[in-house]
Amino acid sequence: SIGDYELERYKANLNYFSLFTSLEDNKYNVQETIINTKVALLGIGGLGSQILYHLSALGFHNIKALDFDTLELSNFNRQLLYSEKDINKLKTELAKERISSFNPNVNLNVTNKRIECAEDVMKHIEGSDYVICVADKPTLHIQDWVNEAVVKLGKPLVSGGVLNTRGRFYSMLPGKTGCVECHKRTIIESDVIVNKQLDSMHQINFQRNNAAISPNVAMLAGAIVNEFLGLVTGIQTPTSLGKMMELNFLTYQTYPISEWNKKEDCPVCHSAPVTVGK
C-alpha cells in the first residue's frame, strides 16, 4: 500500500490519475502498479536519459538500464542527466548516481554492455515486466534482436527514436499485435515503396548524425513514456500498438505512417506466448 511519503511525493500524479479512474479502480492502485512494475530500458543516451527521468518522476521504482557509451561534450545539447565534470565516464554509472539523488526510491540496476545478439537482450530484460528500447546500435541488427527477445519472453515493448525533424515510435504486445518481422513482411507484400518504408523500421539508427535538439527529444520522450504508461496502467490505450507513429517536431502533429497485424506465418512470433498487457 502507499504510505504518507508516496502520497506527498506523487500527489500530482494521483490528481492526474483520478481523471481516468473510478472508485472501483482508484488512483492509488494506478500509482501502486507503477511502483511495483519492473522496467527494462535499453539505451540511456539522448532519448533514454530523458525517459529515465520521466520514469523516475512517475514513480517506477524498479528499473534496469543498459548502455555502453561514455559521456562526450557533444552529448549535452540533449542529454540532461549528466554534467560536464563527468566527461569520459560511463553513462551507466553516472545515470545511477543522478537518479539515486533525484529519487532515492528508485532501484536502478545498470549494465554496461554493447548489445551483440538477441541473447544479450534476453539476459537484460529477463525478470522485467515491460521493455522500452531506444538503443540505436548496431544499426542493422538491434531492432531484430530486440524483437526476437521480447517475443520469446513475451514482454510488451515500446520503442522509438529521433529522425532529424521527426520522431518515430511503435509498441507491441507479443502474441497479440504483430512484431517487427510482421511489419517488414506486411510492407514487402504491399504496394508501397519497400525500401523507404523498411527504413522506418529496420534501420532505426535515428541519431546517426546527431541532428537532434533537446526540446525535440523531450517531445518524443514524453510521447514514448505516455504510451508506456498506458500499457502499464490501462488508463489509456496506446495509439502506437501495431503502428509506426510519427511525431513531426515542426508542426507537433502525430500520425501513423504504417500499421500491421500479426501474421500467422511469421517465423518470429507465430507461436509467441500471449502477453498479459493491459
Task: Name the descriptors.
single chain; 278 residues; alpha/beta; Rossmann fold; eight-stranded mixed sheet; 38% helix
Extract low-pLDDT stretches: 203-207
- Would you list the SSEs in sequence order as H and E? HHHEHEHEHEHEEHHHEE
Shape: globular
The CATH architecture would be: 3-Layer(aba) Sandwich
User: Which structural class fits the helix and strand makeup?
Assistant: alpha/beta
Strand order of the largest sheet: 3-2-1-4-5-6-7-8
How many helix segments? 10
CATH homologous superfamily label: NAD(P)-binding Rossmann-like Domain
**Extended strand count:** 8
Helix % is 25-40%
How many domains? The number is: 1
Global Rg: 18 Å
Largest sheet: 8 strands, mixed
Percent in strands: 15-25%
Can you tell me the CATH topology? Rossmann fold
End-to-end separation in angstroms reads 21 Å
The chain-level mean pLDDT equals 90
Q: Identify the CATH class.
A: Alpha Beta
